[in-house]
Predict the structure.
Amino acid sequence: MATYKPRTLLPLRVSRKLRADVQSVLVGGESLSDFITNALSRRVESRRMQSAFLARGLASAERSRTSGDYVAAKKVVAVLRGRLQHAT
């Protein structure tokens, strides 16, 4: 089992209000450090998912351009509008 040694990130300067807001939402034994670590981890994962989503979209667009196999945006919008009308 690998051991890791925690590292410190840059000191973070925040307004008194932001610090008070964060402290007001901490739950059961959660520290400010725990909160910030969790927020950073979630944001990193969000950025990774966003990058992967973009890469898939760009790759799909390139495949469509290369193959010529795509559906015009106007047709897609028309189909979606029809589905929306049937759903309501």
Notes: The first helix runs from residue 16 to 25.
